[in-house]
Protein 1
Amino acid sequence: MITDTQKTVETALLIRKPARDVYEALIDPDQTSKFWFSHGSGRLDEHQTVTWNWDMYGVSTGVKVLALVPEEKISFAWGNEGMETTVEWTLTPIDGKGTFLQITEHGINGTDDEVLGKIKDSTGGFVLVLAGLKAWLEHGIRLNLVGDRFPPEIAGQKH
């Protein structure tokens, strides 16, 4: 049996840009669409709900902003009703190096197989998001990592 403390996704990466740049890229859908989703219905604003769309997969989700601390923390709930999880993005400035961005997702429920699948999918997804964000902010490159994860030519195949 998987314990509650094990039902957590954690990943992190150093982004060699100031916290204000990283924070802005995460709350502004015009920037976030360069490395994660296709488009969002608006900027993240505390206690508001926005919609994020991944047109390449025909998927969207509601994102309820729980807390915003400029240049420090973003917290939101997302997912299907009854299967919502909470995601926290923590930004830690490192003098002369940039911002260490940590992502934690918790509140994952279901059978052990469902929990393991969600942890696997979220971990892989967030790693791609971090890599895409790093490439975008540090080099202005759109890697299209999320879109290329499941190309249509292999859709329906087991991953």
Note: The mean pLDDT is 93.
Protein 2
Amino acid sequence: MATPGAGRRESRPPGATAAVALPGAATLLGLMNYTAPIATLSDTGAGLHAGTTARIWVMSSISLGLAAALLAVGALADDHGRRRLFALGGALLALSSVGCALAPASAAFVAGRIVQGVATAALLATGLGIIGHTFTGAARARAAGIWGAMLGLGIALGPIAAAWLTRLGDWRLWYWVTVAASVALTAASRALPESRAEHRRGLDLPGLVTMVGGISALLSAVTLGRTGWTRPPVLALLAAAVVLLAAFVVVQARRTSPMLDLGLFRRPAFLLSVGGALITGLGVIGLMSNLVTVMVGAMRLSPLAAAFVLAIWSGMSYVVALQARRLPARWSSGLLLGAGLALSAVSELAMLGISPGTPWWRLAPGLLVAGVGSGLANTMLARLAVDSVPPERASMGSGANNTARYTGAALGVAMVFAITTNGGATPDAMTHGFDIALLVSAVLCAVGAVVTVPLTRRLSAHATISTVLPTPGR
């Protein structure tokens, strides 16, 4: 006789606990490390004797490694084993963090941060790929929600932990903590289930070279462009980026086993995944990455206090992402992604009007609404990243999603920085510029929310047709 409720229990696949806990821990660590310099830039720059341009690279260099490597490591993980690439990512993060901790000057530190970005790319792409392969249905939605929640929690804790460790001793302490955490993560990776695609596609070397080269040239141009967009090196890098990225598209269209299947862009879910991630990077991460600088430079908060204020946004994002699984199943991922972007737009409008005398709590309502929007968006993007591609290509789907997110973030950081500092570095000029940046970011998020509507309708229509049409052979 069956026990009551037995039919409602979901069977847990082997290694299910590790397949949620370790990708979540890796994402938490990766995002904490990604955001750590936001609150310690002044101390880090002084310790490395970094000038204005070098400080820009201190902030941006990890985005270069992340965006350039995400799609490539996702494809490699699908072919050669997601657990294997996850462990390699953890080991590489430990080694590169040693380099950052011991860096004698800004050039060595920036090189270490770029390698940290590559290592973080391996952890993010393989982690979400492991979740996509291990779980299905409602269990996958819950696991993706936890993964999405770790994005918010990492952004909340990173600046706080780094600022606190800097007050405790030195800005380098954070990187030694990252070394220890990365070593522990690598050792624990043995508990993960191994998974890979049934058929290897092989190394797409032309695609790899053109994609990495194109994204690297683009983000390098964006970083250098903050000190002058018409300078010859910037224009040369932008031209190289256009040529290389166009070549990447041509290479992918002609290969029988491409790194990125361009046919996926005909899927509404994939367009939502990649497009939503790009808008999130441009309109949300770019803005919030500059907010601490405005709070410290114009509102006269300490770095640690500014980090706690920023945590209103990222902490709420964490809470909402964890609870998103309780939303009605009839509410589609596309609908909730659009709602998240719309709330982000509203929140940015709510923060308009700050000035050098504005108290920190004036930002709190907008940051709370922004946290709700980001929590919804992060969770839905994680679901779409694995649901929009075939199961054997889960890491590639994650790589494409996160490539769009962190390319958008790098562009967004540059855009907001340029707008905020366009009128000068005085507190009045900075807050006026940030008001303009808030408006621009709100428009981007609103446009993103509107675009999700037709894509969500197409996604719903596609799902209905798939349900109604008979399965071949029946």
Note: Residues 427-468 form the longest helix (42 residues).
Protein 3
Amino acid sequence: MRRFVAPETQQAAADELVAAGAPAVRAVLDVLCDEESPVEWSTSAGVLRRIGRPALEPLMEAMAEAPTQEVARRAGWAYSGLVIDDLAVFEPGLRHPSPKVRSNTAYVMQLKGEEALPYAPRLIEMLTDPDAGVRQRAHWALEGLGPQVVPLLKEVRRSRTAGRLRAPALAALASVGGPAALDERDLALVRRLVRIKMRDEVPEPMHLDGSWFALPTGDRDAVLDAFDLSDPEPVTMRMGAAAWGQEHHGQGWITSSRMYVTPCFNGWTLVFGCPVDDDDAEVRDTVLEWCERLSARFGAAHWYGISCGDGWTAWCVAEHGRAVRYYDAFEEDDQIGTGHPAEEGHLLPHEDGFPEDAFDDLDTSDSDAFRVRYEQVKAELGIPDTCEAPEFAARASVDPSALGPGTRVEGHGVLALTALGREEGHPRGALPI
């Protein structure tokens, strides 16, 4: 049981340890690394951060020899915030035998931004580090250093002796400077690789978090025209999904600078992203307008939305210029139409089919016990499953989260710019091919 210590007393003790400097480092570090200590770990980490330079090597050692991930995390947090003006003292950490130390030191460089430019050559070398985590952290650190590393990355790309470094340097170049930083040779190389990968690519389930349209057509040019999209760039399905995820994950309804237009899946072309350019637009009104306009052109148009974070799910169906169904789990009073065939035999997300007393005698904080009771009551009373956007899409068009080897694929996908994208260009960032 922890004993209460007044904040002012804690602060005074911390100040004394900081004033003691190097002699206090080992004792404070021992407390930091003791997962059973009654002292809050962030308190001891904060003291080490303030002590600064004398704590640097001991924290490197603690990270390298940490018995658990938690201890390594604590030491890394203290290390990344050390109050040290001379960034050069961190440089040995970029070459340390421990990947934990190398990764955390690259993170320090990332936090320093342009100040860390002298260490960019070493960060570039770390793009081929044996440890995948270090490679990723070096990539992020180069992004943090900003556009001034572009010439260095281009030099690596043109070097005949760069060897294995050339490919990750290309990815870093795209992330730091965007497509504009790639010269014609690099762009040609990427496009050639995309063409090769597209030949044998097998559809894979997509992680859904955002909104998309579905149109019963394989006419990609007509789809691009309908959304006022331009500069289409052929992409693999993996690239398209990653682009949508980068721009929309966790954000839901936001204006897109580019949209992913898929190949034709089982007779349906899917369009991921949001073409809206009015920040004040109501989602419902905008969706209805788009679906009705699109359905007048293609015979039908569907829109789906889902958030993996808060339970939001929605869909809209329009046919021949008229919306026949609209549902939003968070706005159930604003529905249009009822009983769409794709919902048949299912509950809507806002509907609760369970009796009010179904869980009265159960500790609902026990998730395992709740799940057992939930399934038991559901089976006994014949309570239907709940229909959400993926389930609706699976019955009405195509469920992107269920794509697989059995999905019929025609053509290839593209990333294309919206009106916003034509003003701002493609977002920076490398995409997996």
Note: The mean pLDDT is 86.
Protein 4
Amino acid sequence: MANNGQLQLPKTLIPLIFVGFFVVLFISKSTVTIDAGEAGVLWKRFDGGVVTDEVPLGEGFHIVAPWNEVIVYEVRQQELFEKMKVLSSNGLEIQIDASAWYEPVYNELGHLHQSIGQNYLQRVIQPAIRSAARSVIGRYTPDDLYSTKRDAIQIEIYEETKKILDKQYVQLNEVLVRDVTLPPTIKEAIESKLKQEQSSLEYEFKLVTAAKEAEKVRIEAQGKADANRILSASLTDKILQDKGIEATLELSNSPNSKVIVIGSGKNGMPIILGNQ
């Protein structure tokens, strides 16, 4: 009913509105939805705080007491990109660009949240990879960093970083050294040295090739000389006469006109006269 132009609600409806409001508030505080690639850590206000002895809440819809709280973590693999200035073994400043692939240990999310918190990237991962990079690079010279040792350096940085993070409930999957930047003067000196070494190797290769070719020619010549010497030693007068007779018999069967004088040649060999 209206009174002086104002709408009056029934007295029984007002309590229902309040009850409905608190029911909606209770439901909104008691439900949580965890998206794909995430997990939730449960914090109980009246029962010991962070739950560390249970599996984290997985993806999907969950109902919790309104006085408790769920802290959501991304559990996918994530990437950290770092530009670091470090010193080589001889004290030169080197800049390296590196990436780290990491993810929180799923079943240890409660311990991670309790001991480090959601900003574990800044608290443990970045300091760990920087410390490992300084330690590893400090054992190498700029020549090592510029040439063949880069893969070994990358592996060492990964192993040293992993030792630290394994104790911090973080799983390190990979460390990639993407680039190493040396001071310009050092880079030019190294490149010049590498060119000289390459030229020296090419010259040595040519010398070795020439020596092998000369040895091959010498061996071939020696072989021919030995063959001729053996052949000469085996050709007696009797063998030469027999070869001459064989040749004469073959020529006598030829259709070309000829005159054969038997026994008129040197050593009794026949003389062949005639036209082709």
Note: Helices lie at 13-30, 109-115, 120-137, 142-146, 150-165, 184-234, 237-252.
